[in-house]
Design brief:
- The complex is a heterodimer of chains A (506) and B (347).
- With 506 residues, chain A is an alpha/beta fold.
- Helix content of chain A is 33%, strand content 23%.
- In chain A, α4 packs across α5 and α14 packs across α15.
- Chain A is globular.
- In chain B, a hairpin with a 6-residue loop joins β1 and β2.
- Chain B has a two-stranded antiparallel ribbon.
- Chain B contains 14 helices and two strands; from the N terminus they run αααααααββααααααα.
- By secondary structure, chain B is mainly alpha-helical.
- The longest helix of chain B is centred in the C-terminal third of the chain and has 28 residues.
- Chain B starts with 10 loop residues before the first helix and ends with a helix.
- The chains are: A alpha/beta (506), B mainly alpha (347).
Chain lengths: 506, 347
């Protein structure tokens, strides 16, 4: 990367952050050059978030210094960081969805005329930044009406309007479709050309392979090493992150498949009632559902689990000849769902790990409605052990666990019910490499025991590595089914975009 | 007896964690003690047997209402109509018994069914039509009082000198200890409260339904996705709350023997909600302790007594003082919660 001057635009030296119980960062020194895309990778708990929060002014370091363009600075709040040209775009977007795009971009910094908000100036300026990010919407559009991808671009426009020199992006593509991801990449490349530096945090190593000029790896709060442009490559990144050689990443295991566990015919979901779905799944099978965001995959799972009712068609399991009439009935028939948003719908945040683990099974172990505490303890112990759930003790509230551990609690809750069909919606979203691996092994173990696993995933690698069969959906219907041999990125994409589909028989 | 009861294996650590969990209870108990000590020092009439009996009696009455309010608050909702249900039922009981010669069992039965029906109506509007609890019960507040004024032509209702037997449920006193002037009699209403509180506490802490209620209060979506029938639980909470309000209304009128429809039960919902909040029920839902609620009701009752005995000239601003005390309690509670969270997560 050609450097105009040798001073890095941003540098941290021996940065450390200590909390009462843990050292989140330990003597980390990193520099970022102008117009550079620097990826920061590491497992959950490696310290990436903490480092970003310090740079953005959300937290203060316990020791070390921050230099902006060679000058030492301290940020005691976010405003100071913004003024120094550093802005952070969170994984969960920070927009007021009830307000307009323009209002969001200038929130807190509204141009005034005679003490009143100058709406025309907002509109004019907002258009300028929207153009920079390639978002063709009117500044008067209400943010809530935009897609997640578009909202993200609004956040970037907002950051640009603060004359940011360093843009920190935390897992920016986790909720984006393939198309939106590509649009985002274009914006990043454009910004890079304009001299904006970007700190990019992501678990999606293939994106980093495409985008990053350099990669810095953190592990356990320490700087482990970095890779320059030529060295950036999947297995190199993984082994630095994890600290061990991960050559065989996915286990291609053959399972024995048994009798049909679920048979779906002409099923219509309330989200896409115009399309009828047909498929079946056998015990011991791992079936992946691929498709673009909005293809109707999550809606299919929530219908199977009776969060939303089927509006037509048939669904048959061994013990239930019709679609379940309630989630409770689905559970009793052995169908369980680990939902897409574990924090919102997967876990009761203010409850302990133990109570979350037992939530689905306390009914069947109760006598006359009274809690069976011993059974609850047993479930907790068993699942903690099986899933290696790391928590301080069983009183730990789940909201304080890492994403990976939280997901394990969700899985533990359902595994305790001894399901026959496990529905998983994006099972490893926002989870670090190590925990992902554990979940994949778990899925294989369950399949080996005869559980049928139906999972939705937006990560191609995951689908490739796990599925015995892959269903692909597009705009509410199943456009095709691919066996292992037929599976290729091209084949999936064709079906996911509606091309090359078997004609729909509605 | 908290809804967030923690558990470990050894007895010692069980006790320790129960103590830690009971932190909130100690807080409100401390507040109550403080107020009692202050009043006892400032007025020699506070500790008179008659006064103490009265405090216990009123705590019981308000406690019954507060437990109902607490259940609704735990679901994340609220019931602003409690006072008006107290009024409606409290006015109808003497009305039906004296002016329309209904028999006691029929009148009481009908009024309990009415209270239950009101609760179910609230619950259905909230769960099926997804109306906001604030709106539904606010309308109830207006509606039931208006109804009671209309039915009775705004005339005060009472039992006169009759129905002494029935009234003894509310007015009865059971001798406990002492003799003569300083004999302490336990008000019968206290027994009612104790039974109710035990049932409620067991329900909340030892049954799966209590667990479901706490879960759905904290995160109704997650509760649904875990297979819990959240609608049924919410319906139950509102039904119980209004039934207890009606039951409380009957006890109130049996006690006082006069119910003026224009102001009977006025503001009682605020006392009930305040008691619940002081007792540890967050208005966000998902938390609650029955013991805390009862102590909260005691705080409200004693505070009123304090103003009466110690600073009678502040009678006018009684509400202001109560409001200030509750606000301070809530502020302290939040600060303590933050301090605990900082200590625990170290962030």
């Amino acid at each position: 990367m050609p450097e105009n001057d040798s001073t890095p635009v941003l540098e941290v030296r021996h940065i450390g952050k200590r909390f009462p119980s843990v050292k989140a960062l330990d003597e980390v020194s990193i520099s970022l050059n102008e117009g550079e895309v620097l990826a920061v990778i590491g497992e959950n708990g490696a310290g990436k978030s903490t480092l970003m929060k310090i740079l953005a002014g959300v937290q203060m370091p316990t020791n070390g210094e921050i230099l902006v363009a060679g000058q030492s600075v301290t940020f005691s709040n976010v405003e100071q960081a913004l003024r120094a040209g550093i802005s952070l775009i969170h994984q969960e977007l920070n927009l007021a969805t009830n307000l307009e795009v323009g209002a969001n971009i200038f929130l807190g910094r509204e141009p005034r005329s005679f003490g009143l908000i100058d709406r025309r100036a907002i509109e004019r300026e907002a258009l300028k930044y929207l153009k920079m990010v390639g978002l063709a919407v009117s500044p008067r559009t209400v943010v809530g009406a935009l897609s997640i991808g578009q909202q993200q671009l609004v956040e970037i426009a907002k950051a640009l309007s603060t004359q940011t020199r360093v843009l920190i992006m935390d897992e920016p593509t986790s909720s984006l479709s393939q198309r939106e991801t590509e649009a985002l990449f274009e914006v990043v490349k454009k910004l890079r050309k304009q001299g904006v530096s970007i700190l990019y945090i992501s678990h999606r190593l293939r994106e980093i392979e495409e985008l990053a000029d350099r990669v810095v790896v953190l592990r356990d709060g320490r700087y482990v090493g970095e890779l320059s442009r030529g060295e950036i490559e999947h297995s190199a990144m993984v082994s630095m992150m994890v600290g061990r050689d991960v050559s065989k990443f996915y286990h291609r295991v053959q399972h024995e498949t048994g009798e049909v566990v679920l048979e779906v015919s002409q099923l219509r979901t309330p989200a896409n009632p115009q399309h009828a779905l047909d498929f079946s799944i056998r015990s011991g099978e791992i079936v992946g559902i691929a498709g673009l965001v909005g293809a109707g995959r999550s809606e299919l799972l929530t219908t199977l689990f009776r969060i939303t009712p089927a509006v037509g068609g048939h669904m048959k399991t061994e013990s239930l000849p019709h679609p379940p009439r309630s989630a409770q009935e689905a559970i009793e028939a052995g169908i369980v769902l680990a939902p897409e948003d574990r924090r919102l719908t997967g876990l009761v945040q203010a409850m302990s790990v133990k109570r979350n683990l037992s939530l689905a099974t306390i009914r069947r172990t109760a006598t006359w409605g009274f809690l069976n505490r011993r059974a609850e303890d047993r479930v907790c112990k068993e699942m903690s052990r099986l899933l290696r759930i790391k928590s301080a003790d069983d009183h730990q509230m789940v909201q304080y666990l890492s994403g990976g551990n939280q997901q394990k609690v969700v899985l533990g809750k359902w595994l305790a019910t001894e399901p026959r069909l496990l529905l998983l919606d994006e099972p490893t979203r926002g989870i670090d490499v190590g925990a992902k691996e554990e979940i994949y092994q778990l899925m294989h173990k369950l399949a080996g025991r005869g559980v049928a696993v139906l999972f939705v995933s937006s990560e191609m690698e995951e689908i490739f590595g796990l599925s015995d069969r892959t269903l692909v959906m597009h705009e509410g219907r199943i456009t095709g089914e691919l066996t292992r041999d037929q599976l290729s990125e091209d084949a999936v994409m064709q079906l996911a975009t509606g091309r090359g589909a078997t004609p729909a028989i509605c | 007896m908290t809804g967030n009861e923690l558990e470990t294996d050894s007895l010692l650590s069980k006790t320790v964690s129960k103590l830690r969990a009971g932190g909130k209870i100690y807080g409100i108990l401390g507040l109550l003690t403080l107020i009692c000590v202050y009043t006892a020092i400032s007025s020699d009439r506070f500790l008179l047997v008659g006064n103490v009996e009265n405090l216990v009696h009123r705590t019981a009455l308000f406690g019954i209402l507060s437990i109902g309010a607490a259940l609704v608050i735990i679901t994340g909702g609220i019931d602003l109509s409690i006072g008006s249900v107290v009024c409606l039922v409290g006015v109808l009981l003497p009305f039906l018994l004296t002016k329309h010669d209904w028999s006691v069992p029929v009148a009481v039965g009908a009024l309990l069914v009415l209270s239950l029906g009101i609760g179910l109506a609230h619950g259905l509007l909230v769960t099926k039509l997804r109306l906001q609890p604030f709106v539904v019960t606010l309308c109830g507040l207006l509606f039931y009082r208006g109804l009671s004024r209309g039915i009775t032509n705004d005339q005060s209702q009472g039992f006169g000198i009759e129905f002494k037997g029935l009234r003894s449920i509310a007015t009865g006193r059971i001798p406990i200890f002492g003799e003569g002037e300083s004999a302490f009699h336990l008000p019968a209403t206290t027994l009612v409260l104790i039974i109710l509180a035990i049932v409620a506490a067991v329900f909340l802490n030892k049954t799966i339904y209590g667990r479901y209620l706490l879960a759905l209060g904290n995160n109704p979506e997650a509760a649904r996705y875990s297979g819990i029938n959240t609608d049924r639980m919410v319906l139950l909470a509102y039904a119980v709350c209004s039934t207890l309000a009606g039951f409380g209304g009957m006890l109130f009128v049996l006690d006082i023997n006069a119910a003026q429809p224009s102001d009977f039960g006025n503001f009682y919902e605020l006392y009930a909600i305040a008691a619940a909040v002081l007792g540890g029920c967050s208005l966000r839902g998902g938390e609650g302790s029955i013991l805390g609620v009862v102590i909260g009701a005691a705080v409200m009752v004693v505070l009123s007594n304090t103003i009466n005995l110690v600073h009678p000239k502040y009678q006018n601003i009684e509400f202001a003082i109560i409001g200030a005390v509750i606000l301070s309690g809530a502020i302290v509670d939040e600060l303590v919660r933050r301090w605990l969270a900082v200590r625990r997560a170290g962030k």
